[in-house]
C-alpha cells in the first residue's frame, strides 16, 4: 500500500523560510509524479507545485513563483518544497500527493489526478 508522509511544517515569521519534505513509499516498482497542494481555513484546496518522476520538469502556481521551489533528486525520495519569503497568506495545511505515471516526465497540476495523499502539515506565517 502506498503511503505519503509530509514533514517540515511549523511557525515562521513573514519573510522567513521553511522546507517541507514528502516521502512516498510502499511500491518500489512504480514511478510517481508528486505535487504539493494547500488549503487555508474556509478556502478550497489549491495547487502549489508539481514535479515529474525524473525531477526534470516542474510547475509552480503563479502565487508562489519566485518564492517556492519544488525539487527531487533524480527520481528519488524525498520531494522537497523550499519556501522562501513567506507571507501570512501562505498560512495553510500543506498536502503532498502522488500518482503513478507511465512516463518519467509527466506531472499534473490537477488534484483530480492524484491518487495518494498525505495527512498534511501545518504552515503558519505570522505578520
Describe this structure in words.
This protein has 127 residues and is mainly β. Helices cover 0% and strands 50% of the residues. It contains no helices and eleven strands. It has strands spanning 3-7, 10-13, 18-25, 31-39, 46-51, 58-60, 68-72, 79-83, 92-101, 116-117, 121-126. The strands form two sheets. Strands 2, 4, 5, 6, 9, 10 and 11 form a seven-stranded mixed β-sheet that branches. The protein has a four-stranded antiparallel β-sheet with strand order 1-3-8-7, with no helix packed on it. A hairpin with a 6-residue loop joins strand 4 and strand 5. The chain is globular, with a radius of gyration of 14 Å. It starts with a strand and ends with a strand. The mean pLDDT is 95.
Give descriptors for this structure.
single chain, 127 residues, mainly beta, 7-stranded mixed sheet, 4-stranded antiparallel sheet, 50% strand, globular
Helix-strand blueprint:
Blueprint: E1 3-7, E2 10-13, E3 18-25, E4 31-39, E5 46-51, E6 58-60, E7 68-72, E8 79-83, E9 92-101, E10 116-117, E11 121-126
Parallel strand pairs: 2-11
Antiparallel strand pairs: 1-3, 3-8, 4-5, 4-9, 5-6, 7-8, 9-10, 9-11
The biggest sheet, with number of strands, parallel, antiparallel or mixed sense and barrel status, is: 7 strands, mixed
Based on CA atoms alone, the radius of gyration comes out at: 14 Å
The averaged pLDDT comes out at 95
Number of helices: 0
- Counting helices, strands and paired strands, the structural category is mainly beta
Number of strands: 11
- Percentage of residues in DSSP E strands: over 45%
State the end-to-end CA separation: 40 Å
Low-confidence stretches: none
Helix fraction by DSSP (H/I, runs of at least 4): under 10%
Shape: globular
| Element-by-element helix/strand order | EEEEEEEEEEE
